[in-house]
Give the backbone structure.
Amino acid sequence: MAAHACFELASIAAALGPLAGRFDIDVLAECDSTNARLIARAEAGAPSGLVIVAERQTAGRGRMGRTWFSAAGDSLTFSLLWRLPAGRPIDGLSLAVGVAIADALVASGVQKVALKWPNDILLGGRKLGGVLIELAASAAVIGIGLNLRLPADMPPELAPAAAALGQPVAVNELLAKLLAELHRALATFASGGFVALHGRWQGLNAYAGAEVQVLSPFAPPLIGRCRGVADDGALLLETGRGIERVISGDVSLRRA
Ligand code: BTN
């Protein structure tokens, strides 16, 4: 049986210190999807800083309509509600969130963390986690899933590309660190947009300078050399036609 992740509000608040007052954290033993729950709360008028953490999701959502698989205790799954300042475009928001997650992991002693455009967190080149941002009632619902251990019933086609933290993880401290870094990155994003975090993202880019292909269900693969991202978060690919921009949508990136 999987170990229980054991989220404890008092421990999370103690680890957050003075930032604890910025968050209102709900811990659920089980729910369908923390994003779905938080969207309902956003629509009911909940403010920035509301967090829903679930020990287990029964219908976790991933990008492109996929399912996010995790067994109880195997994954750190939570969503943060953030109301965007009026007039601030959300371009690059998911990349800013990726920077915050990477910084939290590095500060927690995790090595070999990198980011894969647009939303993946990699550990040693394999997917450790992902970000799913959904918009509801002028709010961003920022959903984050990180593998603590790989689920035993993981679909075999996903297993070779997946990573997990592996070592015993102090989940309350890790969650607090993630929230603190999100608080910092979102404040930077609110005042300066993604451009203020652009240099940090470039430094974490797993595919910098590599030959990659962009796959879309609606277009032939686009192959080129990864030249990082633009100030608005668009992927920059160097192809035979020059530098081409790929904006985030239903596309995925692979090494060519
Ligand atoms: C992806 O890589 O496709 C994004 C995965 C995002 C999963 C998280 S888990 C917490 C939150 N609730 C959800 O239903 N999905 C996100």
